Amino acid sequence: MSARNKVVVPMVRPSGSFRLKDQPYHCGYPGFEICCKEKKQTILELPNSVQFSVDETNYKSPEIVIHDPDFCLQVQLQNLTLFASPFNFKLSNFFQEDFVFFICSTSKKEDPFLFWSFPCSFLPSNQVYAVASYTDLDLLDLSSCHKMYDNVTVIPLDMVKLHKSNFSFTWSEWICGDCERQGKKCRLKSNINKQPETECEKPAKDGSKRKLVLDDCLVLNFFILVFVVITLVADRYTFRNNLDEKRDNIYVVRQ
To answer: What is the pLDDT of residues 108-118, one digit of tens each?
Structure first.
């Protein structure tokens, strides 16, 4: 990981839940993939090539705050399928709603209950508006407007009403939740052909560390002892062979 990303990356420390994209699969829970971009951005990668920039994370909540890296969330929402990921929108005082997005070549009057502007950074000459899917479109002035895409998008209402550029995902607490709240590390269980499960790693105590060091020393001493014994046996065998050879030579000379 490059030095220019170090300001952002600590916010999403790999901790058993998240893993860097180039790390081995077992280093994180499936779906918790992050990568580092050249623009000092930490990116959360989701199915269907959806990518969000990470602002911060809270492992105790749990919560990850994100935003669209191009500040045009509507484009990615058409491919966002949270049911294929471990995440869900974090809801505050608002509920989730089905929305349809329209691009209009002229500005329209907003309605606080039916029709909201939803800015997109790379469509400055065209206004984007969000409309609740249950709305009777005949009640709205949609002249010079067309649908941005056909599918309906389910998002929290406050993202639309409050023009929020960032929002939060949460995930099930059984994914490393207890471990991270207790300050422990989390890891994947080695379950082959089963649903991924996590478990907490207990921090090593001083006594266990000393025992580990002692065990290592005993093993090392054992191998040293074996080596010494083998060396002595080999030397004695060589010495006896040399002695027998000398005796044979003396016997031949006397004859």
So the answer is: 988 888 889 98
